[in-house]
């Protein structure tokens, strides 16, 4: 099939970027979108030009590295897939595809389509863990978890941290990411001791980098793991409760 | 000084790791120095809760206001009597209009917080994306209502000022007579441009309510897969009810059905 690409090219974080058009006359419909860019880069290298910088790693939809706006949608038009799992058969033969990096103040462009998503790590650092001594593996079923709770926690834990929720959000809010990371620990028994501090600290860190949630629901549609905005409601509920719970815990310090 | 062996290195590393395990990774304590309501309102999630709570108060007002005003269809005496009753609520326990003023103060407070939180969240969101998307952005879930909240909000806010000038203070209405609620409304709505303002503003209000009365459940964390679909039904129903009720009054007057 024949595709035309309009790719954002930017030499560095402070350089001015612009779209550049490339013609891809013969590509296979069974290629993934990343393979299309690989192909483009082969051509660019052969022509002695700079290849397009983009993030990628596992190419099987589980690492969260690949990140690009394709025709104005995070990870492109396919629901529940990362860019690496988007195939060219989804596009019409002869069409032009526009590719842009994630845009958010907290995701500065490093080069071309590659952005720095460290801000998401800072959210995790402020509470996305349980403080437990990690000895040998405990016996299975030592702590019983209701099936529904385990399923919900698993749904939240499916987050691969790609940042598509931020990219898709009209407000650049990281609510879905933070909600997923808070929920997968706050739902489980192991997460209870630090539950209220976790939600408080992670939300506070999130708000120092990102925008606020106005319930558009764009994030849920962009998420390659189809994480539900129900988790955002849970985050809001836990944050509200944490205001009381944390005061109570403080007063017990003596 | 004796030579350090690999054994010593290992022992030191073990000590360090044991210590790290006991102390755990540093968790920065969040600053809890300010009074807790101030702190809570300082966070965006807190502001959204305040927006939802004040939104619920304003929805309550809009509903009661509409029900009261629909008495226009029962005739002049009913509507005027209702207007007089509003001033009398609480009598004789409270002096005349005191209860009404308490309601008004609550309403003004709700408006102030609703608008302030909307303003500061909008600013925060603008700062969060200093460089906009340079290509066309394709929205999948965001609807017209959710994306125009600030505009419909501004339209409704400006309209309220006009509405007060028209039917409460009276200086935007040349035929205004204090206390004759029915006649004032008829005189006002008979002017075609004014009727259009009322109709447009109430449609904007309906659009605002359509997103707001769904979004408030989410902001307050009221979510349960068993009743989630009812949140949408509620929003559609409430928005439709308010729009139809409020638009009908100027429409019926300007078309001459109600005189």
Uncertain segments of chain B are: 19-27
Q: How can the largest sheet of chain B be summarized?
A: none
Could you tell me the CATH topology label of chain B. 3 helical TM bundles of succinate and fumarate reductases
The beta-strand count of chain A equals 7
Mean pLDDT of chain B: 89
> Which structural class do you get from the secondary structure elements of chain B?
mainly alpha
Task: Briefly say what this structure is.
The complex is a heterodimer of chains A (254) and B (259). Chain A has 254 residues and is an alpha+beta fold.
Q: Can you tell me about this structure?
A:
The complex is a heterodimer of chains A (254) and B (259). Chain A has helices spanning 33-46, 118-125, 147-157, 164-168, 175-186, 195-209, 218-222, 230-251; strands at 3-9, 18-24, 69-70, 73-74, 96-100, 109-111, 114-115. Chain A folds into two domains: 3-111, Ubiquitin-like (UB roll); 117-251, Orthogonal Bundle (Fumarate Reductase Iron-sulfur Protein, Chain B, domain 2). Chain A starts with a strand and ends with a helix. Chain A has eight helices and seven strands; from the N terminus they run E-E-H-E-E-E-E-E-H-H-H-H-H-H-H. Chain B has 259 residues and is mostly helical. Chain B has a single domain (41-129, 143-254), classed as 3 helical TM bundles of succinate and fumarate reductases (Up-down Bundle), CATH 1.20.1300. Chain B has helices at 6-23, 36-42, 44-69, 76-88, 98-127, 144-147, 149-167, 181-190, 192-219, 228-254. The radius of gyration of chain B is 28 Å and the shape is elongated. Mean pLDDT of chain B is 89; it is low at 19-27. Chains A and B meet through helix 6, helix 7 and helix 8 of A and helix 3, helix 5 and helix 9 of B.
What layout of secondary structure does this protein have?
The complex is a heterodimer of chains A (254) and B (259).
Chain A: E1 3-9, E2 18-24, H1 33-46, E3 69-70, E4 73-74, E5 96-100, E6 109-111, E7 114-115, H2 118-125, H3 147-157, H4 164-168, H5 175-186, H6 195-209, H7 218-222, H8 230-251
Parallel strand pairs in A: 1-5
Antiparallel strand pairs in A: 1-2, 3-4, 3-5, 6-7
Helix pairs in contact in A: 2-6, 3-5, 5-6, 5-8, 6-8
Chain B: H1 6-23, H2 36-42, H3 44-69, H4 76-88, H5 98-127, H6 144-147, H7 149-167, H8 181-190, H9 192-219, H10 228-254
Helix pairs in contact in B: 3-5, 3-9, 3-10, 7-9, 8-10, 9-10
């Amino acid at each position: 099939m024949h595709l035309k690409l309009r790719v954002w090219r930017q030499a560095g974080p402070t350089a001015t970027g612009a779209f550049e058009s490339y013609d891809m006359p013969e590509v296979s419909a069974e290629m993934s979108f990343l393979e299309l860019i690989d192909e483009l880069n082969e051509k660019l290298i052969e022509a002695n030009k700079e290849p397009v910088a983009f993030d990628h790693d596992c190419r099987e939809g589980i690492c969260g590295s690949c990140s690009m706006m394709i025709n104005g949608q995070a990870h492109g038009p396919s629901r529940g897939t990362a860019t690496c799992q988007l195939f060219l058969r989804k596009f019409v033969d002869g069409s032009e595809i526009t590719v842009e990096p994630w845009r958010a103040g907290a995701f500065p462009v490093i080069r071309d389509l590659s952005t720095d998503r460290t801000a998401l790590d800072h959210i995790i650092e402020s509470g996305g863990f349980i403080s437990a001594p990690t000895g040998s593996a405990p016996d299975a079923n030592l702590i019983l978890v209701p099936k529904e709770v385990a399923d919900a926690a698993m749904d939240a834990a499916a987050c691969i941290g790609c940042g598509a929720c931020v990219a898709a959000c009209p407000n650049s809010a990281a609510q879905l990411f933070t909600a997923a990371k808070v929920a997968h620990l706050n739902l489980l028994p192991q997460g209870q001791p630090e539950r209220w501090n976790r939600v408080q600290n992670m939300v506070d860190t999130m708000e120092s980098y990102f925008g606020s949630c106005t319930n558009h629901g764009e994030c849920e549609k962009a998420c390659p793991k189809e994480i539900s905005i129900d988790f955002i409601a849970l985050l809001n509920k836990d944050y509200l409760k944490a205001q009381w719970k944390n005061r109570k815990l403080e007063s017990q310090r003596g | 000084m004796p030579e350090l062996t690999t054994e010593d290195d290992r022992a030191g590393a073990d000590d360090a790791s044991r210590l790290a395990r006991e102390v755990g990774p540093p968790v920065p304590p969040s600053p809890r120095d300010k009074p807790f309501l101030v702190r809570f309102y300082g966070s965006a999630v807190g502001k959204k809760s305040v927006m939802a709570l004040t939104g619920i108060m304003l929805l309550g007002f809009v509903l009661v206001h509409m029900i009261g005003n629909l008495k226009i269809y029962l005739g002049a005496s009913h509507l005027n009597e209702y207007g007089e009753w509003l001033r009398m609520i609480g009598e004789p326990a409270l002096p005349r209009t005191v209860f009404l003023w308490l309601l008004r103060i609550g309403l003004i407070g709700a408006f102030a917080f609703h608008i302030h939180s909307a303003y500061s969240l909008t600013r925060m969101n603008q700062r969060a994306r200093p460089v906009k998307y340079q290509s066309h952005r394709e929205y999948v879930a965001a609807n017209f209502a959710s994306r125009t909240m600030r505009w419909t909000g501004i339209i409704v806010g400006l309209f309220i000022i006009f509405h007060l000038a028209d039917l409460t203070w009276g200086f935007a209405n040349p035929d205004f007579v204090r206390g004759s609620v029915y006649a004032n409304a008829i005189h006002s709505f008979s002017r075609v441009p004014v009727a259009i303002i009322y109709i447009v503003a109430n449609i904007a209000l309906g659009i605002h309510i359509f997103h707001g009365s769904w979004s408030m459940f989410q902001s307050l964390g009221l979510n349960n897969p068993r009743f989630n679909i009812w949140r949408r039904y509620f929003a559609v129903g409430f928005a439709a009810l308010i729009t139809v009720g409020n638009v009908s009054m100027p429409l019926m007057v300007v078309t001459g059905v109600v005189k």
